[in-house]
Amino acid sequence: MKTPVALDLAQFPDSPYARELRGGFPGLRFTPNLERDYQAFHLTLVRTRVRFFQLAILAQALAAAAHMRLLDHLSTRVVLTSWVALAIPLCGMLAAISWSRWYEPLYVPVARVAWPVLGVAAAAGIANRGLVGHPDLFYFLTTYTIALFFLGGQRFHETVLASALLVVTYGAALALGHWPVSLILYCITVLTLTASMGAFAYRVTERQRRTSFLERGLMTELAARDGLTGLKNRGAFDAHLPQVWGQAMRDRRMLALLLIDVDHFKAYNDLYGHQAGDAALRRVANVVQGFARRPLDIAARYGGEEFVLALFDLTSEHLHDIAEQLRLAIQALQIPHEGSQTAPIITISVGVTLIGPRHGRSQAGALQLADEALYTAKRCGRNCVRFAESDPTFSTGTFKGRMSARIRLTR
Fold it and tell me: CA–CA separation, 234 vs 86, rounded Å?
């Protein structure tokens, strides 16, 4: 299925949603993290039909329990009793889960066991009834197979497995009962064709659903991206920082913040024009993005010609290397800038801080540290990196005007 033209996948080079759309997910599987998100999306869509299916099967099991007394054949009664004994608790459990707040975490693992078990039990019971001259329930299996695909709430591969087990069990039960081969082949063919049609239709449905999920994800990402550079925008960064701050606090890890400013960018726009300025910002942004490679890292456009990087779990030595590599990578772009008072090419100034998040420290204070370091880099002639390191008694968010007494700046 093709992606709508309105969604240009080239705008999302680092997006897992775009990566799956480009690959076409031929196996109807995403990467583990994305697959978990899709499962939650899928279960939300199918919850109503899942509830209906559980209640319908539960009602049939209760009806079968009431009907058992009317059966005159002992073996049929025994097999049907076995199916009812499985169906009532399993369907009751699935129905309860589908109405509870544990629906998302519990339904899939329980259904993954319940539906194959119920299918096998139903196939064995109906085959036994056919062997004693009552094949009237055979077409219940065909209906059950179709319903399993569209009402069972499972994904494609899980449903195919449950259907295959049902068909194999029914055929094996008839073969063990010495039914004529021609009748066995007829029944197996009917069930296989029914399951195949259900599988084909459901595969198309699941591909559409997965594509919709990916496109929704891309639209969400689009709303969180800066339209010019393709980086995350300020709002997305402001939403991400508290999450990664909390993660660093729980894991007792360090969090690095780098504020990046393109040197003399107003002069660049005045000399070369805003279109050239936009193109230059995009090239700089592309380099900055390359330094946010891990899941908890983020690169964003902070405003105008400023960018910000939040990098999780770095040592001081590693951070110094990364900041200097970033400065040199922008310099290596060799974008001419004759209006610069620093160099004949575009350069950047970088302010860096490395913070151990804890109670009494704030994200705003950490950003202020990086901002003060950036200001110092500009005062030192630009095209350089400066680090702000807080001492153990530093009170974040209140250092303006008391910088020299409260923090230490390093190259």
Answer: 55
181: its two tokens? 């081969």
**Six-digit token string for 24:** 């076409």
Superfamily in which the 234-410 domain is placed by CATH: Reverse transcriptase/Diguanylate cyclase domain (3.30.70.270)
**What pLDDT, in 10s, does the model give residues 132-169?**
666 667 788 888 899 999 999 999 999 999 999 999 99
Q: What backbone phi and psi angles, to 5 degrees, belong to 390?
A: -85, 145
Number of H helices, E strands in the chain: 13, 6
Q: Which residue has the tokens 């995350």?
A: 232
> Which of 157, 128, 126 has the alpha carbon at shortest distance from 144?
126
Query: What six digits make up the tokens of 308?
Result: 């910000």
Of 21-30, 67-76, 101-110, 304-313, the poorest mean pLDDT is in 67-76
Name residues whose C-beta falls within 8 Å of residue 368's C-beta, 6 or more positions apart in sequence. Answer: 396, 397, 399, 400
Strand 255-262 and strand 348-355: the pairing is: antiparallel
Q: Provide the residue ranges of all domains of the chain, joining segments of one domain with +.
A: 9-222, 234-410
Looking at residue 225, the DSSP 8-state letter turns out to be: B
Q: What are phi and psi of 314, to 5 degrees?
A: -120, 150
Q: How confident is the model at residue 30 (pLDDT cuts 50, 70, 90)?
A: very high
**pLDDT tens digits for 189-205?**
999 999 999 999 999 99
3-state secondary structure of 355: strand
CA distance 225 to 405: 38
CB under 8 Å, gap of 24 or more: what pairs does 75-83 form?
Answer: 75/128, 75/132, 76/125, 76/128, 76/129, 76/132, 76/134, 79/124, 79/125, 79/128, 79/129, 80/125, 80/129, 82/121, 82/124, 82/125, 83/118, 83/121, 83/122, 83/124, 83/125
Contact of 137 with 183, CB cutoff 8 Å: no
* Ordered DSSP codes for 230-281: -SB-HHHHHHHHHHHHHHHHHHT--EEEEEEEETTHHHHHHHH-HHHHHHHH
Beta strands 385-390 and 348-355: pairing type?
Answer: parallel
**Token pair in block for residue 237:** 């960064």
Contact yes or no for 150/189 (Cβ under 8 A):
no
Strands 255-262 and 298-303 come out as unpaired
